[in-house]
Design goal:
4-stranded antiparallel sheet, alpha+beta
Length: about 170
């Protein structure tokens, strides 16, 4: 399958089967995140694999969007490692770097025959506290990963795109 075919076929799974993700598939997904590019290669990303009943219970308590997944990748960045613009400290790479890592892992999961959902519907401060994360960590997204439940399907909007004239320009 070409990259474009993979990207088009991947969709946000909102119902997962209880079948666990095999360790070797999870390792490939995490490796895809590890090799993702980051600003100045400072690698501020932090990824946690949540599979224990206790961790999943905490995540379900902070987000309604875990969708029954038995594995959730919790992704954020370390504020002490991120690149900061030398003239504008409010401009930094943390969120972008973590997003690139998430995208790499999401696409590798699709290549492994697994489904994912990029979840931003949670309070990161509440989640950081519930998970006992240090002050220097900022969460970006939760990514349930696993086998889609029977009947899981893309959203009706999955293949709906804005016309090029609305989002694509030339300089």
């Amino acid at each position: 399958m070409s990259f474009t075919e993979l990207a088009k076929s991947r969709y946000s799974v909102r119902a997962f089967s209880p079948k666990p993700v095999e360790r070797e598939k999870l390792e490939k997904i995490v490796e895809a995140g590890r090799i993702a590019p980051t600003a100045k290669n400072q690698q501020p990303q932090k990824v946690w694999i949540a599979q224990s009943p206790e961790a999943l219970e905490k995540l379900n308590a902070v987000s309604p969007c875990i969708y029954g997944a038995t594995t959730v990748l919790v992704v954020g960045y370390d504020k002490e490692r991120m690149w900061v613009h030398p003239d504008h400290e409010e401009i930094h790479s943390g969120y972008v770097d973590a997003s690139i890592v998430l995208t790499h892992m999401m696409l590798e999961a699709a290549d492994q025959g697994l489904g994912t959902c990029w979840v931003a519907r949670f309070d990161p401060y509440e989640a950081e506290k519930a998970l006992g994360l240090p002050e220097n960590i900022r969460l970006v997204a939760l990514m349930p990963v696993g086998y889609p439940a029977e009947g899981a399907a893309p959203s009706p909007r999955h293949e709906s795109f804005r016309p090029d004239a609305e989002w694509l320009g030339e300089l």
